[in-house]
Amino acid sequence: MVEQQRTPVEVDGHRLVLTNLDKVLYPTAGFTKAEVMQYLTAVAPALLPQLRRRTVTRVRWPHGTGSESFFEKNLPAGSPRWVQRVSIASASSRSTREGREPETVVYPLIDNVAGLVWLANLAALELHVHQWRVDAEGVPQIPDRLVVDLDPGPPAGLGECAQVALLVREALQGVLPGPIIPVTSGNKGLQLYVPTPQLRAADDTRALAQGLAEALAAQHPHLVVSRMTKAVRPGKVFLDWSQNTRAKTTICPYSLRGRGGSPTVAAPRSWAEIERAANSEVDVLRQLTPRQVLERLQRDGDLMNV
């Protein structure tokens, strides 16, 4: 059995023992666990506000993205006591169908760089969050944003997602007064984030998203679908309104993705980039790397904070 390389460190006043910092987590790029930690530390001023008071589910790749991953909701055994946590009854669709009591999930709340480094040490590359936050007592609040998730069915790509993003922006004008922020997902598609401080019930956000998806699918059937059925999705963009249901999570802006051999990031984009991609006959919009995201943050500031 190979002995782990252990490195004691102190981050934000918290002691951590980091393991195997030279382990390659992205085999194509040779991107190591240490480099994941370096990215998360550098991007923390933009990432932590997106995580604040949101319960975090994780996708972990213990042996790198070339191997199996697993999805994790509960705080793992042996987690440091300083990691904030909240217990929430989670009624999954399966437990509801089977008539079982909701399970209680103990979620971590990540509010500092030490928490990000701890997650990276576990090879938790993807951080997914709900559209709601918890209050000081750990009680889930009404969702504070609407997420429009645009998922292209090949051969459609980011260009088609950009076209649909413009349709969504036009449809929401006068409906929601806040800024609409486009985010390339780091995987295949694109998300649009819209603050919803005026909505007063959790179901309002879901109903608004579903109505928007169905209306655009009816108006633009050659480009948009609102049903998850794979048979109807090739060459079109699926507007996934279900991301706004209480149980669903979405990749957190500025989180890494683990879907390939090279790291990409869920990253906010400018509307000028979206408009250029929508009007181009070639694929000009690409998913961004950690280095590109950090360069853009330094040059343009945090586009999530507009």
UniProtKB/TrEMBL annotation:
Domain spans labelled DNA ligase D polymerase: 32-303
InterPro entries the UniProt entry points to: LigD_pol_dom, NHEJ_LigD
Pfam families: LigD_Prim-Pol (PF21686)
NCBIfam families: ligD_pol
The protein's name: DNA ligase D polymerase domain-containing protein
